[in-house]
Every structure is written in structure tokens, then in C-alpha cells.
Design goal:
Elements: E1 2-5, E2 8-18, E3 24-32, E4 38-44, E5 50-56, H1 67-79, E6 84-90, H2 100-115, H3 122-132, H4 138-141, E7 145-149, E8 153-156, E9 165-170, H5 177-182, H6 193-197, H7 204-207, H8 212-219, H9 222-232, E10 237-240, E11 247-251, E12 265-270
Parallel strand pairs: 5-6
Antiparallel strand pairs: 1-4, 2-3, 3-7, 4-6, 7-8, 9-11, 9-12, 10-11
The structure holds cytidine-5'-monophosphate.
Cytidine-5'-monophosphate binds next to strand 3 and helix 5.
Length: 271
């Protein structure tokens, strides 16, 4: 059973308040993008456990802490499923705010559901996903969604992305999500994100922000430089994705963006 896992970008990310459980209340529009993807191959094992082989990008995470293994463990507890062998081909940069690990976790839930014919509904898979991470529920179906609460409360989004191209650019460093949240100052926006997304695209850049930029841009000067370069190359909207370090630009026509830094990785897709 082979499943592709695609990354996401955040079109706007409002950090509204810090909660008593340590998480932050957010409002963000997540959009699934192409240009790069991970591939997860799951096969039933003759043994009871779960093995994981990771190829591609080296990640500094032990196999038993990987979310695809945690997904299998959670589903074994609930549904008594057999052991599996998994092979994960990592291509989505990590520490990038692209949700690669979360996309892999959702791919594992969907793959195991299909492989063992568990017949789980979309809602049941979303509930499992929320136990693995705030972002994981979005990746169960991958349609544009407002993600609220700590990110796990989903509402379908009407957003006009027709004809847009997306350039994702990942500089040669990573940012950890807890570190990024530690630097933010939560606040309420004048207008909810959903209202601002409904503005004509030409007004998005002035109206829609990722609240992580305020604290991360002064710390990592490469990020605002990349944003300016995306705009200079014609992006109608450029922003940090999630908690970074990846930036992206949306373009009305096939973009011409060349990396400006050593080690900057660039991915392009049509939305
Ligand atoms: O849910 P997840 O494991 O992806 O979150 C990783 C960390 O990011 C949390 O432990 C927390 O520090 C931070 N976080 C947060 N508010 C959110 C999501 C994540 O503070 N809405």
C-alpha cells in the first residue's frame, strides 16, 4: 500500500491567545500543495511489531518517535491490527512549517485503514489524527480548511485559488515549532481571517499575515529578504508558512524565482 503525503502552506495565521494547557488558540487557512511529497509504503508484517525504514532526507528523530509509528501504535491499541513494515521516503523539508511529519502521520492512518479494511469514517480518522498532533487532522482529506482551536478544529474554506502558482522556498536552516510559539505575542485581529480571505487577491498582502513573522523575521533576517525577493519576482502574496522556516509566494502566472541563498531549496507547483 503506497500513499503520497503532500505538504501544506498557511494562508494567514492568527495567533489569538495562549491557553491554559500551554497550546495557542489559532485561526489559519491551510492549503495542500504539490511540488514535493513524501511516500509511505505500508505492508503487513509476519511479526507483531512495526518496523520503519526511512530513506531520503536524514531526520534526527528515532524510528519509535516517528509519527507514522505512533499512528500504528494508536490504531493497534484501538483495532488490534497486525504488525506492519513501513518504508518512508522523506522529501518534504522538516522544521519548515510545511507539515511534513503531520502529512506522513495522516498518510499512515489512511493507509492502515485501507490496508486492514477497518472502514473508519472521515470523522474517526480525524479524531485519531488529533491525538498525534495539532496539524494532523487537516491532512486526512487535504481540502482547503480553516484550522482553529490548536489547529485541529476544521471548517471547509471557500477560497479562490484558481490559476495560481506556488513557489515554496526553504532556507538552509530549521525552526522548531515550540521555539517559534515561545516567541509570539498573541492578539486578536480587527477582522476574522475568513473575512479577509474573501477580499480580492490583490489585497491579500496588506490584509493577511502570519503572526510568526513578527517575532521570527527580526531573528532570521534571511526570511524577510526571501519575502522581498518573492515579491520582486512578481508574487501577489508572499509569506512564512506555519512556524517556518519555509517561505512561499503565490503567483498569477508560471513563476521565475531563483534561489538567492546557498542551500535554499525551491519547489514549484500549480494550485
Ligand atoms: O501539536 P503539536 O505536537 O504539533 O505541537 C507541538 C508544540 O507546538 C506544542 O507542544 C506547543 O508547544 C506548540 N503549539 C502551540 N499551539 C498550537 C500548536 C502547537 O503552542 N496551536
Amino acid at each position: 500500500m503506497i500513499i503520497n503525503a503532500y505538504p501544506k502552506i498557511n494562508l494567514g495565521l492568527d495567533i489569538l491567545k495562549k491557553r491554559d494547557d500551554g497550546y495557542h488558540e489559532i485561526d489559519t487557512l491551510m492549503i495542500s500543495v504539490g511540488g514535493v511529497h513524501d511516500t509511505l509504503d505500508i505492508t503487513p508484517a509476519t511479526t507483531k511489531g512495526c518496523s520503519l525504514q526511512i530513506d531520503g532526507l536524514g531526520i534526527n528523530c528515532s524510528a519509535d518517535r516517528n509519527l507514522v509509528v505512533k499512528a500504528w501504535m494508536l490504531m493497534r491499541e484501538r483495532y488490534n491490527i497486525p504488525g506492519v513494515n513501513m518504508r518512508l521516503e522523506k522529501r518534504i523539508p522538516f522544521g519548515a512549517g510545511l507539515g511534513g511529519g503531520s502529512a506522513d502521520a495522516a498518510a499512515a492512518i489512511k493507509g492502515i485503514n485501507t490496508l486492514f479494511e477497518l472502514g473508519l469514517s472521515h470523522e474517526e480518522m480525524v479524531e485519531l489524527a488529533a491525538r498525534l498532533g495539532s496539524d494532523v487532522p487537516f491532512f486526512i482529506n487535504g481540502e482547503p480548511m480553516y484550522c482553529r482551536g490548536r489547529g485541529e478544529i476544521l471548517a471547509p474554506a471557500e477560497v479562490d485559488l484558481q490559476g495560481l502558482w506556488c513557489v515554496i522556498t526553504k532556507p538552509d536552516f530549521e525552526i522548531s515549532t515550540p521555539e517559534a510559539y515561545a516567541g509570539v505575542t498573541p492578539h486578536l485581529p480587527a477582522l476574522p481571517l475568513e473575512r479577509r480571505i474573501r477580499l480580492p487577491r490583490e489585497q491579500w498582502q496588506d490584509a493577511i499575515v502570519n503572526d510568526f513573522e513578527a517575532s521570527l523575521f527580526p531573528r532570521y533576517s534571511i526570511l524577510p529578504n526571501i519575502k522581498r525577493e518573492l515579491q520582486r519576482r512578481g508574487a501577489l502574496y508572499a509569506s512564512l508558512s506555519g512556524s517556518g522556516s519555509a517561505m512561499y509566494g503565490l503567483f498569477e502566472s508560471q513563476p521565475d524565482y531563483k534561489p538567492i541563498y546557498v542551500g535554499e531549496q525551491v519547489f514549484v507547483c500549480k494550485l
